[in-house]
Amino acid sequence: MKIEVLVVPDCPHEKAAVELLRRALDDVGLTDVTWDTQVVADQDEAERIGFTGSPTFLIDGRDLFAEPGRAAGLTCRMYATPQGPAGLPTLDQLRQALAAVCQTGNAPAGPGSGREPTNEQRRHWQDTHAAHPGMYGAEPSTPAVHAAGVFRAAGADRVLELGAGHGRDALYFARKGFTVRATDFSSTGLGQLREAARAQGLADRITTAVHDVRTPLPLPDDSVDAVFAHMLLCMALSTREIRTLVAEVRRVLRPGGVFVYTVRHTGDAHYGTGTAHGDDIYEHGGFAVHFFPRQLVDSLADGWRLDEVHGFEEGELPRRLWRITQSLS
Ligand SMILES: C[S@@+](CC[C@H](N)C(=O)[O-])C[C@H]1O[C@@H](n2cnc3c(N)ncnc32)[C@H](O)[C@@H]1O
């Protein structure tokens, strides 16, 4: 793996950029990896190599934060961060971009570089969203309809949705007047969501971010009022990853914030069947699911108020799920 930092002469962000890169590489386990710094001397060179601003981070020639259509030029670069435009990405954003490259198999080491279930799952979900656009239909899920009422009662405005897929629920929350930040590790699903948001005149209420929930949430502390996740925590995540994710949800929620999530549980017909990956994860038809025991639900609510655990069924199998509502004081 070849990493390069491209800068203009006397770039004011060069020093901070390489410090940030060192920290991000260390954080994703690429402690031995170094980089070359290249100075882009003039406009001709910028255009020749497609340089769109200083600093730029390249891995094997690919821009980690590529913005298709952006003109090449000898200029400073602005990064869209949760705190607004900035001269550098945040540490979280750089870590996530590095981890995403690792997951595509282009890097030799670090989290996400192996053939563990979640990395296979990312490819599988990308392919599935591409092959079946809008696979869950245009109507919201029943947990989303319920959650909208809970969120309204809690005085929520800013909703974060995790594992939003093609966005049937994010679109519903936006139609109900919430401001929605929708994330998923499938850029294909989120692309379908953005297209639908534009078509429905909801683009100003919904933002999207490609994000793997195994990495820190790309949001500041106390920055959302409510979090929603339908069938995301029961994806191919280890119990440890689930606990870390719930701690992250807690970090980004403001005091009094609400978290509504759903998971398939150990009463589901597929529990204990198919390909076993350990840690209550079983795979059927290429989809790996972590089936939740009740004890896991209870322990994830430690330090929260557990408002409700509601059993329901969905789909043809039917899938057996719990809808959990927990809130912060
Ligand atoms: C069962 S689908 C549910 C989609 C959506 N919540 C809905 O109900 O319409 C699970 C979604 O989680 C996403 N996903 C799975 N593992 C993920 C991970 N580690 N990080 C982020 N998204 C993930 C998949 O891409 C998929 O869109």
UniProtKB/TrEMBL annotation:
SUPFAM superfamilies under this entry? S-adenosyl-L-methionine-dependent methyltransferases
InterPro entries, sorted:
Methyltransf_25, Methyltransf_Superfamily, SAM-dependent_MTases_sf
Q: What superkingdom heads the lineage?
A: Bacteria
Q: Which residues form a coiled coil?
A: none
Q: Where is the Methyltransferase domain?
A: 159-257
A Pfam family of this chain: Methyltransf_25
Write down what this protein is called: Methyltransferase domain-containing protein
Protein's organism = Streptomyces albospinus
Q: What is the lineage of its organism?
A: Bacteria, Bacillati, Actinomycetota, Actinomycetes, Kitasatosporales
